[in-house]
Write a structure and sequence with these properties.
The chain is an all-alpha fold. The chain has one domain. Helices cover 71% and strands 0% of the residues. The radius of gyration is 21 Å and the shape is globular. The two termini are 19 Å apart.
């Protein structure tokens, strides 16, 4: 049974609810959908709903079986495909156009980061989009991200409570609907990283350097070559995973770093000046608006957290929390510069980056017995 006295569960629920409130507030104001009413309903309804749901004990029997959950998730996956095929993209968010323009420039022989859409991702994300660019179906990102996350909920949940609460949290937050409506790839990006962690948990032997070790490290290198914020998740997870195998941690990290450089170096050689001025580091630094020392402090916090966490759900929780504070702090700097109304409602801040937090927080929710104050498992 879900219990609100578990600190990780409570904080995760608050963060997910707060992010949902920001989305409801912003887009109800922009589209004039009774913002005061909708925001109030969400503020009251979201916590009340999960408080009431938490009163029930969902067991994996009767109608709620793993088999029936699998069938429901297959149906939801099919509906997501139909939505993307039938309903056109809505809104002015430039993520899909940025990918298209980057690839247009790349295939025309021009430096792709000179795009007017200021693409912020590292090259691997654009290369992953390439097959779907050719068939004009970049909406596949949202479908794949959604399906991967349903798979992760199915595989990672040990009890009926976890399956129900994690699924309800996914559908109770406006973020997943926003991702589909505007065709944003950020949800896919983070679920891809979590899927790599799932593979590492299942197949990686930290004490043995074999083909699986190399392949998983290669996958992690590709993951890092999508966005720099991935480094926060890696710092926590890899220190948690390799804490008793430091030598192999160095080797694994070396492979990840080599893959990361392999994606970047060709673009640095292509046009060094343009890469420095318009490349992903410049754009991500501009968008985050965080001073270098602040970013460094967050990375150091991730390193410290990597030594402290003791369970995988704690890895997801701390990763999500650090990224949440990074993103919200960057919003604070923007609000100070431009004022709340301009920054929030006129797109000086991009709420979509909070999509990175949602899957991590959802998977940190657990129904296991944990210490009331620290969120750790009881040792019996």
């Amino acid at each position: 049974m879900y219990s609100s006295n578990k600190i990780i569960n409570s904080v995760s629920l608050f963060v997910i609810g707060f992010i949902g409130f920001l989305f409801v507030l912003k887009f109800s104001v922009i589209y004039n959908f009774h913002p005061a009413l909708l925001s109030s309903l969400f503020v009251v309804g979201f916590p009340l709903f999960f408080y009431l749901v938490g009163k029930y004990n969902f067991e994996l029997n009767g109608y709620l079986t793993k088999k029936n959950v699998k069938i429901i998730f297959f149906i939801l996956s099919g509906l997501s495909i139909l939505y993307v095929l039938i309903v056109p993209r809505i809104g002015e968010i430039g993520r899909v156009p940025a990918i298209i323009d980057w690839l247009d420039l790349y295939f025309s022989g021009e430096f792709p980061y000179n795009s007017g859409y200021t693409p912020s991702s590292f090259p691997a994300l654009f290369f992953m989009a390439m097959p779907f660019y050719f068939i004009n179906f970049l909406g596949i990102f949202e479908i794949v991200g959604f399906v991967i996350f349903l798979f992760l909920i199915y595989k990672a949940s040990k009890t009926g409570d976890e399956i129900v609460h994690r699924s309800l949290l996914l559908f109770a937050t406006p973020v997943i609907y926003y991702e589909f409506v505007v065709r944003c790839e950020l949800f896919f990006n983070v679920t891809f990283i979590i899927f790599l962690i799932y593979l590492a948990e299942r197949y990686l032997n930290t004490q043995k350097i074999d083909l699986k070790f190399i392949l998983i490290a290669t996958g992690f290198g590709i993951g890092l070559s999508t966005r720099s914020v991935v480094a926060v998740i890696y710092a926590i997870y890899l220190l948690y995973k390799f804490r008793y195998d430091i030598k192999n941690l160095v080797i694994f990290s070396g492979i990840v770093a080599l893959l990361f450089l392999a994606f970047l170096v060709p673009f640095i050689i292509w046009d060094q000046e343009a890469f420095v001025n318009n490349g992903p580091f410049a754009i991500q630094s501009h968008l985050s608006n965080l001073p270098f020392i602040v970013s460094l402090m967050f990375i150091l916090a991730a390193v410290v957290a990597g030594w402290m966490v003791s369970r995988l759900h704690e890895v997801f929780f701390i990763s999500g929390l650090i990224i949440f504070f990074m993103v919200t702090l960057s919003y604070v700097f923007k609000i100070v510069d431009f004022g709340f109304n301009v920054a929030f409602f006129e797109d000086k801040i991009d709420l979509s980056y909070l999509a990175f937090v949602i899957p991590l927080m959802i998977l940190s929710i657990t129904s296991h017995e944990v210490d009331r104050f620290r969120g750790r498992f009881f040792k019996v």
